[in-house]
Design brief:
Blueprint: H1 2-9, H2 17-40, H3 46-49, E1 50-51, E2 65-66, H4 69-86, H5 92-115, H6 120-137, H7 148-154, H8 157-177, H9 184-203, H10 206-226, H11 235-256, H12 263-286, H13 299-310, H14 317-344, H15 349-373
Antiparallel strand pairs: 1-2
Length: 378
């Protein structure tokens, strides 16, 4: 896990550990144990939970793999909640409400993982329920952007609510978009959440620090079984859970702690957000009817294809797994660099805007270079 480990090593995470060490340990251990059980007894449930290698362009595994890793992550988060309540932490009520609010979105994704028949509209509505609960219960309210016309609009609570719903639901979808390679989505999540935890601790936002740290730890437990061999997939439930938790913690941190620039969390998630927007624009430009259909032209898909053509041309299982695992590393490093810059200048809006906007042309150049180097016959 080179990327997330490298990124965490550059941030003062140990400052966070003494206060919340039991919760972080419980989250990681609970997630790892639940994921181990899912993998250990896969034959008893893979006919229901398995992601079949059905030839779709974004699938490269050769045998069915359980895609309910989100259940393991949730188990770790719930165990951390038990420990936090037992220790009487002041942040425990917020943390428990956060998990309760996230359940509708998670349930919609999990239903899709189990049945492959959940309508996108239903999943969207459930994610909006989560975002609305976060707005009403948790103080996750967008009213500050450091952009004057948006700030003027956000003074009216219906517009603030609309912005919050759009941000949280959009981020859940964006995290699901990048869930296409072993370790990629979860590794990006660990980096983002570690950065959020560091800055939350720095500005005295204990509730946000606990939530971000425990969630990062839960995804570390999952990664033990997802990377590099892909024994367990995150699934829509896990990706939605990651997206809504990142969105809620970010909105609360910015809303309640003015020392944090509203562009800090955006700089952290600009990669999945721009991947989503870029993919939609790319499909609209080439085939408007394909906007909602999966394809193998995401950046991570092209990097994997490049690795296969250059280093692992075979179709055997070993070649497929190695190319899949190596795909995440350059993208982890890219995300780690963005997170490092965002943490260093978390209170400087102009620097963060430049960092975020600068990412867009850099991504486009990288995408053009990788796609140009991939052979037409994939």
């Amino acid at each position: 896990m080179i990327g997330p480990t490298w990124a965490a090593a550059t941030m003062p995470v140990p400052d966070l550990l003494p206060e919340f060490a039991p919760e972080l340990a419980a989250s990681a251990a609970g997630s790892a144990l639940a994921c181990w059980l899912l993998v250990r007894y896969r034959e008893t449930h893979v006919h229901i939970t398995g992601d079949a290698p059905d030839g779709q362009p974004q699938r490269f595994h050769t045998t069915p793999v359980p895609r309910v890793g989100g259940l393991g992550v949730l188990a770790g988060l719930l165990l951390a909640a038990v420990v936090a309540v037992a220790r009487g932490l002041p942040a425990a009520p917020f943390y428990c409400l956060l998990l309760f609010a996230a359940l509708p979105s998670f349930a919609g994704g999990l239903f899709e993982d189990l049945t492959a028949s959940a309508r996108p509209l239903i999943r969207l509505l459930l994610t909006l329920v989560t975002a609305t609960a976060a707005f009403a219960w948790l103080g996750a309210q967008l009213y500050r952007s450091d952009v004057w016309w948006l700030d003027a609009a956000f003074r009216y609570w219906p517009l603030s609510l609309a912005g919050t719903l759009f941000a949280i639901a959009g981020l859940a979808h964006a995290m699901n978009i990048i869930d296409g390679s072993h370790g990629l989505c979860a590794g990006v999540g660990v980096i983002v959440l570690s950065a959020l935890a560091v800055v939350a601790q720095r500005v005295g936002a204990d509730s946000s620090a606990l939530a971000a740290g425990a969630t990062a730890a839960a995804f570390v437990g999952f990664l033990l079984f997802n990377y590099p061999l892909g024994m367990l997939f995150l699934g829509d439930g896990g990706a939605y859970l990651l997206g809504v938790l990142v969105g809620i913690v970010s909105a609360r941190l910015v809303g309640r702690y003015p020392a944090t620039s509203p562009w800090f969390p955006f700089a952290l998630v600009v990669y999945p957000v721009w991947e989503t927007l870029f993919s939609a624009l790319r499909r609209l430009a080439t085939d408007p009817g394909s906007v909602g259909r999966p394809d193998a032209l995401h950046l991570h898909s092209l990097i994997r294809q490049r690795l296969r053509q250059t280093w692992f041309p075979g179709r055997d299982q070993r070649s497929l797994k190695l190319s899949n695992a190596l795909t995440a590393i350059p993208l982890w490093l890219m995300q780690g660099a963005m997170a490092w810059g965002a943490v260093q200048w978390y209170d400087r809006t102009h620097v963060l805007i430049a960092l975020s906007l600068g990412f867009v042309p850099a991504y486009c150049v990288l995408y053009w270079w990788v796609r140009r180097s991939v052979q037409p016959a994939l």
